[in-house]
Write a structure and sequence with these properties.
The protein has 6 helices and no strands. With 169 residues, the chain is mainly alpha-helical. The structure holds fe (ii) ion (3 copies).
């Protein structure tokens, strides 16, 4: 536990820690949603998109580690029991019951947009609380989530375009 780390942001510490645990839980759920989606996916460009899902899963896993480190540094406790993830998370976990790749892309896209909102929210809070370090951590993760959103949008657009093209033939 970082003594000075906590002293700097004394007033907003609890609020920041609560949001960090929300983000932490959401990262684990996002990790699993991508990972399991990559295993069961069916449809156009299956292999390419499944590889992208696995790459994103790894990045969500890295985000969980970064958020966890910051929670500990601030003297908080990261969520210890996976059963608690869904209670802390506000972004939804969508089980890939429908394995069609377009459905999976849409579900993951929704999760990414939610994550973008979460890190934007953390950045805003940290700006007003003058917590520069958490801001820095959240800002870096935010830029990864923006890349993820773009990647998924691009795949959806490509699939839609090729389907339209094929239906004209
Ligand atoms: Fe993430
Ligand atoms: Fe992401
Ligand atoms: Fe990507």
């Amino acid at each position: 536990m970082g003594q000075m780390a906590q002293k700097i942001i004394k007033e907003n510490k609890d609020e920041i820690l609560k949001l960090l645990n929300t983000a932490y839980s959401e990262e684990w759920l996002a990790y699993y949603q991508y990972w399991i989606g990559a295993q069961v996916a069916k449809g156009p460009m299956r292999k390419t998109i499944a590889d992208e899902f696995l790459e994103h899963a790894k990045e969500e896993f890295d985000h969980a580690k970064k958020v966890c480190d910051r929670i500990i540094q601030l003297g908080g406790t990261p969520v210890l029991d996976p059963e608690e993830w869904k209670k802390h998370a506000i972004c939804r976990y969508d089980a890939p019951v429908d394995e069609f790749i377009v459905t999976l892309l849409e579900q993951n896209l929704e999760a990414e947009r939610c994550a973008i909102g979460r890190y934007q929210q953390i950045c805003n809070l940290c700006m007003s609380a003058k917590d520069i370090e958490t801001f820095h951590v959240a800002r870096h993760i935010l830029s990864d989530e923006l890349d993820h959103e773009q990647d998924l949008e691009d795949y959806l657009e490509d699939i839609k375009t090729s389907m339209e093209h094929m239906s004209k033939k």
